[in-house]
Recover the amino acids of this structure.
């Protein structure tokens, strides 16, 4: 499985960005895909996840501001980020596992993208 992120960049506080994670190589119809982020000097944290049944869960820090969705025809998962804050600044990664059981722990995931940088200025 290969995951390729895109869509990162810079935004002002209150602005929006949309990240994409294009997936290829799945051999199972069941999967979980999660967006993680990691800021310098901080632990990696999960922000949003979605499984093959389209169930979604969000971290408290992004609830109401971020939306995860998928386009199955394009094998792509999106992270729409609105009302951005400087504390959202981080490298964002998508990760996946070929099971529809999702967890927040990064060790659960077998496949990772290369990451895309998001920088929010005040």
């Amino acid at each position: 499985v290969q995951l390729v992120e895109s869509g990162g960049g810079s935004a002002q506080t209150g602005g929006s960005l949309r990240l994409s994670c294009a997936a290829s190589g799945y051999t199972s119809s069941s999967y979980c895909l999660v967006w993680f982020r990691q800021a310098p000097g901080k632990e990696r944290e999960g922000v949003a996840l979605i499984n093959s049944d389209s169930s979604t869960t969000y971290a408290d820090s992004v609830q109401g501001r971020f939306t995860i969705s998928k386009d199955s025809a394009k094998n792509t998962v999106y992270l729409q980020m609105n009302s951005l804050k400087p504390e959202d600044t981080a490298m964002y990664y998508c990760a996946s596992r070929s099971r529809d059981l999702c967890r927040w722990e990064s060790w659960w995931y077998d496949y990772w993208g290369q990451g895309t940088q998001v920088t929010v200025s005040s």
The longest strand covers residues 17-24.
